[in-house]
Amino acid sequence: MAPIDRKFIERALASPVTRRKFLQGLLVSGALASMPGGLLKAVTSEAGITYEGKYQVFRNACPRNCYDTCSIKTYVKDGVVQFIEGAPESTFTAGALCVKGFSYWRRAYSPDRIKYPMVQQGRGSGNWKRVSWDEAMTRIAKKILEIKKKDDSLLGLGLTKYSGNFGITNYGVEGMMSSLGYTTRFVGTPCWPAGIDAQNYDLGNMWCNDPEDFVHARYAILWGANPAWCSVHTMKFIYEAQERGAKLVVVDPVFSQTAAKADEYWRPNTGQDGALALGMCRHILDKGMYDKEFVTQHAVGFEEFAEYLRREVTVEWAAQKSGIPAQDIAKVAEEFATAKPATIWIGYGLQRHVNGGAMVRAIDALVAMTGNVGKVGGGARYGHLYTWGFNYHALIQKQPEGSKGYVGATGPMGEFDTGQGAKAAKYSDRAVNINQTARMILETNDPPVRMLWVSCKNPFSQDFDLTMLKKAFKKLEMVVVVDQFYNQTVEQADIVLPVTTLLEEWTQNVSYWHYWMSLNEQAIKPMFESKSNIEIAALLSAKMNQLSPGSCTFSPKLNSKKWMEMEFNKGIYDLFGIKSWQDLRKGPVKAKLASSAAWHDYKFKTPSGKYEFKSDLCKEHGHQALPEYLANRKPYAPYRLLTPHSKFNIHSQFQNLDWMAEFNPEPFVYINPKLAAKKGIADGSLVKLSSKVGEMQIKAKLTDNVAPDTLLMYEGWFNKNPYNVQNMVDDTSADMGKWKTGAPGVAIHDQFCDVNPA
Amino acid sequence: MSKKQAGFYIDAQRCIGCYSCAMACKNQYHQEPGVHWRYVYPLKEEIYPHRERAWMSLACNHCEHPTCLEVCPVEAYYKREKDGVVVHEQEKCIGCQNCIRSCPYGAPRFNPARHQAEKCSMCYQRLDAGLKPACVQGCPTYALQFIEDMASFDQSGKVQYLAGFPRFPELNPSVRFRPPREPREVRR
Ligand code: SF4
Ligand code: SF4
Ligand code: SF4
Asked: Which ligand is nearest to the CA of B100?
């Protein structure tokens, strides 16, 4: 019986959460009255589950920050979700979902949800008191009016919002802020900023091939990307390419699940990907294997780049920097240059370094000089916003008459900002760096950030340097958090407002990876007293105007469906080949693309209109004009600490659900057996990690999936577990990101720590 | 003998251990907390030399000669004539756990809330409606597939007993595997 894990049966037998206990828990929490009864019933395998005409079927779309942005079909009976599946109409989703997707409705119905507006007496005290929506709004509105009176502006009101829900109506949160006046906005993105800037310097935009055209690749390098965990649906296209004879190379400091599927896996020194790419470029140059037509007809600056390579780069140098032997670099370089088409998927991992932007530019250059840009099955794939052409009415709101704000220019307001930053007004919002939330709260004055509104975000699990963040929150006079669960940020709130899940609201979604668009219908009535972000904005607006007429311009009459309808336009309809949003009831639709290849017409959006190996703009912005090697961060502790995504959560979402906890009950730090032996650490034993910003204790798992000088922990939020990787991670900036997203990226993977038995 | 024997094909080279199949099953049947009819097992490092990087997705194997069926004192099990699916009738089950003890694959699970056994039924109602089992449809990589008839399944490159999957020829489990490969590795 060796391989079958009897533990799971035993655990089931000993499960403390019997149905009776579960019911009791619900009674105590008062949730039972509003829990739909059918929900609590497990279905037996022969209970006669039926498929024909017994369900109301709704269309939903996963709004999380995930490449796959799945199209979902939701089956509802008697107002209760019975099960969900991936929409079969989308050739990308193709009927499947990831493990998180399949647990979705467990989230909507979780007894742990925040059910009512609640007020906490003393942040972190857990001393919560239920209040009515009216009372919550009165308290909030009064505070906003108080700030306005005190400062003569609303810059003391800060908004930190990110990607917790990309359903486009959720931009109503930004709209609500603008409706109140000029406020302080945490702008930028922790995700992909350095790479966005890099691709904009090289190509003039970030635009990637349709992932479904992976099947045409004859050679693929997945560089710092782990789709087996972060884009499960793309794997089938990669497999098909392999089955058609393509070679798959994976480059990653971790032997990831994707690496296990590769034909060849490289584990270079972390942060030396730039050297590796440049070494390959040099070898291809020496062998004359570059695409002469592309570099002369469609590019500028290749000669200067070639000269730099001849002067500064050798394959041996790249080998010494990266730890990958020279003959392997040369071999893969030649294979990559000869296979047509060949592609590289640049993951968001490798640009989370102080030299991240420079490394992305080096990889872009490798793809470009081999003539693979603009080719079906080729391309330097990073992401795109090609299908994001909505109206953003919810986002674009007018400040009340006489509002005062920040005087002077501000940059873009985040990567999904559609030209908001460009408007010429006397006043503007005050933009501060989202990747330094703690620092910005502490350092911003005249006026200070007095009140913080948090939505679609869990800063205490996702922002950097937790010690500083705790200190920063002490400076805030009021914290309002809009969320679904009592997470670590909610613990630090004064007022928490329950927000709807995707199943309870209208919205729509597109992806930054594939080219499908999905409608998200309200499949069930909002649970408990939850409201959508749009409804919350409307409610606050009504209250503001009741207390002080004319103080908020957000329309209290429109609901999330109306807002959704207003977001469509002719451009979107034409791009997707539909006449009305109602057509999406029948299923998701895909953008009509002239080619599956980005840049197929070689009309680059750079100043020169060509691919720019040499970018003067990049130089103007304080970087190197050429994709030159940039050194990585000096270690400040003995071991490198990596904190990437897990397959069981998206940032801090999903892991707290009971079903997810069954498959992944507790977090670990992953340590190479060699390092463990040196330190006297046994598999499963408790260890202490310490870095310059904090420390924590956690169980160790020994594995050679990580290098001996590296420690690995997955980010996430476990319900009722103090685990938090942000204890260990500081807020050092990446090189690029400021230009396009308003703030530089953050060097999440340039982190170091020590480890010892606890 | 049934007319046909349906089964599962587990392509361990394609499988990424994502647990979608297991969660798709919970999504379809709302199993009690702690109960899974399908589970994804990592292959031990002696078999695949990297921890948690190769997997076996297992549920009931709908054996040709099911021991669960033989040991059940109240005949709560039957094997469908048309496709060999082994069905457990929960309404008859008295919770004696004989099946749980006898199945060497750990397929029947004890439901503590109902005090009964339960297990994968290959979603036979879905099969009858012309659909794939929920886990199969839910697998994003096509690693888990439905075999309509073992007799006509192309066996080339496939094995019945993947290393780590216990060998019980007398049951003749209706599963086939493709073993996982390893990449060539270049490590500093
Ligand atoms: S998290 Fe990603 S893969 Fe999972 S359901 Fe959502 S979009 Fe799909
Ligand atoms: S795997 Fe176990 S439960 Fe399934 S048919 Fe075979 S003996 Fe019965
Ligand atoms: S869903 Fe498919 S790929 Fe994922 S664990 Fe199950 S069999 Fe493997």
From this structure: 2
